[in-house]
Amino acid sequence: MRLLIVGGGGREHALAWACRRERTDIEVICAPGNGGTAVIAENVTIDVTDARTIARIAAEREVDLVVVGPDAAVAAGVADACAARNIPAFGPTAAAGRIESSKSFGKVLMDEAGIPTARWLSGTADQRDALLAFAEDLGGACAVKADGLALGKGVVMCETLDDVHGALRACFDTARFGAAGSRVVVEEQLTGTEASVLALSDGHRLRLLTPARDYKRALDGDGRMRAAARHRRTRSDRPGSAQGAAAVRRRAARPRHALRRVPVRRTHAHRRWHPCAGVQRPVR
Q1: What is the pTM of this model?
Q2: What would the pLDDT profile of 62-71 be if each residue is shown by its tens digit?
Q3: Alpha-carbon dihedral of residues 70, 75, 80, 81, nearest 10 degrees?
Q4: How far apart are CA 154 and CA 121, in angstroms?
Q5: Does residue 180 lie within any of the structural domains?
Q6: 128 CB contacts (<8 Å, ≥6 apart)?
Q7: Would you say residue 195 lies in a domain?
Q8: pLDDT given for residue 281 in this prediction
Q9: Does residue 19 contact residue 26 with C-beta atoms inside 8 Å?
């Protein structure tokens, strides 16, 4: 089996590693990949937004499945280009991806579907006064978000109207987020415990993934992001099942000297949630 993973970040490295772990006979190609994927896969230099070229390479290499990683590749229509060549692709179409590539589109969709969401207003530089008036109604405590894709960095958390003025200047006047910030969403600031719940769908069925919690503001300024997910037992993990018994035997067969516990560093934002809690890694 030949697999093409589109993207060059840590997420794509993890996907390549997981695929190779499950099946050693899989040939993995990463476009463009990175230094980590080069060790376990073949890297091919391609822009992730060049949908036609990615689909052409997939056809020439007789790829069995294309896995689309970055949001930019989704927005560029990589899945659509692969479908046009009858190449199976794991990832949403560009139309479905608008819920991520346009925050205002996502907010409209939630309002129309009756999905609870924070109060919001969207606008361009011409509607700056209306955006400021809305932020004033919120008492200055709001989030100013670049409408388009900004690599996860397009949100400014504001506490005062001066902060809002600065965020709008960054988007409209200095183009800090490029074209992604030509339209913004000013949103009511919500506080409290948050969680992200993702699901996979084939259009008919849903498969929930493990919920995760993301503390991007924890220890802000140190260049690190705090995120954690708690393992949820599946049927195959439950005691008494044939799969669960086999998993227990496999774990018991591992040499204990080859494992070490990763030390847990807890912060005020994590408490019981920590990405390294309970993880075991092989000693190199």
Answers
A1: 0.72
A2: 999 999 999 9
A3: -80
A4: 16
A5: yes
A6: 168, 172
A7: no
A8: 36
A9: yes
Instruction: Quickly count helices (H) and strands (E) in the chain.
Output: 10, 15
DSSP 3-state helix, strand, coil percentages of the chain (rounded to 5)?
Answer: 35, 20, 45
Contacts of 114 (CB under 8 A, 6+ apart): none
Q: Are residues 177 and 234 in the same domain?
A: no
Query: In degrees, to the nearest 5, what angle opens at C-alpha 100 toward C-alphas 146 and 18?
Result: 125
48 & 34 share domain: yes
Chain segment 215-251, per-residue pLDDT in tens: 666 555 655 566 777 765 545 445 455 555 565 556 5
Contacting residues for 100 by C-beta, under 8 A, at least 6 apart: 71, 74, 75, 106, 149
* Same-domain pairing of 92 and 24: yes
What is the number of other CB atoms lying within 10 angstroms of the CB of residue 50?
A: 17
Helix (H) or strand (E) holding 164: helix 161-168
Containing structural domain, residue 85: 2-97
Per-residue pLDDT, averaged over 76-103, amounts to 94
User: Is 70 domain-assigned?
Assistant: yes
The domain total for the chain is 3
